[in-house]
Amino acid sequence: MPSYDFKCNKCQTTFSLTYKSFGAYAQAEQHLCTACSSSDTVRKIGRIALAKGDKSRLDALSDPTALAQIDENDPKAVGKFMKQLGQGLESDLGDQVDTTMDKMQK
Ligand SMILES: [Zn+2]
Questions:
Q1: Who surrounds ion ligand 1 at CB < 5 A?
Q2: What is the pLDDT confidence band of residue 8, given thresholds at 50, 70 and 90?
Q3: Which end of the chain is more exposed for a tag (fewer CB within 10 A), N or C?
Q4: What does the pLDDT look like over 44-94, one tens digit per residue?
């Protein structure tokens, strides 16, 4: 499950929220502070924790808009997405993504 770090603008608390899926995160209209329940919170960009997969690579490729369209519980859908990402990359990172996804699907 993806989790996101937020910071509360009201009490300055930093906290993490975990969502069932990327879609659930995308559909959430408010991300309430765990300390004061304020909805005046901002997501801290740059870190997405995943239960499986290559965290560092997905961090670099994290795009909430694109990820929201994926059912992370469907390995084939995730793999397809990652292959599409890999094909869009010019470096040999694309090959590495393919390799990673092949492992995940086995
Ligand atoms: Zn707060």
A1: 8, 10-11, 13, 33, 35-36, 38
A2: very high
A3: C
A4: 875 455 555 555 555 555 555 665 666 767 778 777 777 776 665 555 555
Q: Is 49 in contact with 2 (CB distance < 8 Å)?
A: yes
How far is ligand 1, taken at its centre, from the CA of residue 66, in Å? Answer: 29
Ligand 1 centre to CA of 103 (Å) is: 41
Closest residue by Cα to residue 18 from 57, 49, 52: 49
CB–CB of 42/30 below 8 Å? no
| Distances in whole angstroms, Cα of residue 29 to Cα of each of 20, 23, 32, 34, 96 | 15, 12, 10, 16, 35
